Amino acid sequence: MDSLQARISLLLDRWRAERQLGFRHFASGKHDRITDVAGVTVGHHTLNDGECQTGVTAISPKAAGIYAEPLPCGVAVLNGFAKPIGLVQIEELGRLETPIVLTNTLCVGRAFSGTVRYMVEKNPQIGRTLPTVNPLVLECNDGYLNDIQALAITEEMVMDTLNHTETEFARGSVGAGRGMSCFALKGGIGTSSCVIPSLNATLGVLVLANFGALSALQLEGIPMGETLQALLNTYSEQQDKGSIIIVMATDAPLDARQLKRVAKRAGAGLGRLGSYWGHGSGDIAVAFSTQPQSQNIEDSELDPMLRAAAEATERAVLDALMQATQVTGFAGHQRPALSDLLDQLVVQRN
């Protein structure tokens, strides 16, 4: 057995024994989710209707109170092929004043309007005696599996999602992740968390994974693209485009400049998986803190947080791949689930 085959066998042994992948330097939080950061909740609206395979996901840092008390926030645009709303003001002011809403590219406008309506319900004087509001809406293109021209997301779906966020939430082919592809496999929503003892803090990550070329995929450092491609009866390659959104939350009292530095380290996690942020990919990371900056954390103390950002991003993408289920959608297009393919490899080697 050559070296690569041996490494794949070890990887499959681990998959079979633990049913999970992902190297861990840091211990995870209690649930290994972004909601391990106190106060953060997540909600989904999933649309599974024939050729319409799409949805909405909302990350709420402080329920409706965030408008009155914005949170420190930093943004890193790794590759700017994207159609977000709200990034310019966050870049200027370094603060987040609404929940973060994720959806498909052509429904960003509906998500914006729905978020505005939600925020006005909670704060009736917005735009009158109070300033206007800066919703943060981020997107990926799910047009391979979803009839994106249908504009199937409504303001009501967005408002309902924002009104029903919880600490427990589904991952994989749900919410905004319903129609997403990742490394030519089924992508979607993934999450993870890291506990950072030296800072007495937790970092949580949620991703909307819709990027990557299968030929470049690495799992724990092992090139797996050709091995997985050989299992597919029909195969439609995905270029390293389509986008990924990374949302990071922490209870460490970091300022906006430091959070921007943390957000940039998402790129290291994507690189471990084989991504190079190809042309046509909108790769954006947003990091916010749920705590006011009551004490100064020196930049020299940030190294564990930076390492955790890379690790948690990689683990969150793996979570999206492992939790996703196969979806067939627009024009009969289909994306298989990574877990099903790994199960096939286990059977072949037994």
Q: What is the CA-atom radius of gyration, in angstroms?
A: 19 Å
Structural class: alpha+beta
CATH fold-level topology: L-amino peptidase D-ALA esterase/amidase
Low-confidence stretches: none
Largest sheet: 6 strands, mixed
Distance between the termini: 15 Å
Q: State the strand order across the main sheet.
A: 4-3-14-13-10-9
The helix count comes to 9
- Anisotropy-based shape: globular
* Total strands: 16
Give the integer mean of the pLDDT values: 94
Helix content: 25-40%
Which class in CATH terms? Alpha Beta
Question: What series of H and E elements makes up the topology?
Answer: HEEEHEEHEHEEEEEEHEHHEHEEH
CATH architecture: 4-Layer Sandwich
CATH superfamily: L-amino peptidase D-ALA esterase/amidase
Strand content: 15-25%
Structural domain tally: 1
What does this molecule look like?
- The longest helix is centred in the last third of the chain and has 21 residues, at 303-323.
- The protein has helices at 3-18, 87-93, 108-122, 155-162, 225-229, 256-264, 266-273, 303-323, 338-349, and strands at 41-49, 52-60, 71-80, 95-96, 100-104, 136-140, 181-182, 185-186, 188-196, 201-209, 218-219, 222-223, 244-250, 282-289, 327-328, 334-335.
- It has one domain: L-amino peptidase D-ALA esterase/amidase (4-Layer Sandwich).
- Helix 1 (3-18) packs across helix 9 (338-349) and helix 3 crosses helix 4.
- Helix content is 29%, strand content 24%.
- Strand 7 and strand 8 form a beta hairpin.
- The strands form 5 sheets. It has a 6-stranded mixed β-sheet, with helices on both faces. It has a 4-stranded mixed β-sheet with strand order 1-2-5-6. A two-stranded antiparallel ribbon has the order 7-8.
- The protein starts with a helix and ends with a helix.
- The chain is of the alpha+beta class and 350 residues long.
- The mean pLDDT is 94.
- The chain is globular.
- It is built from 9 helices and 16 strands.
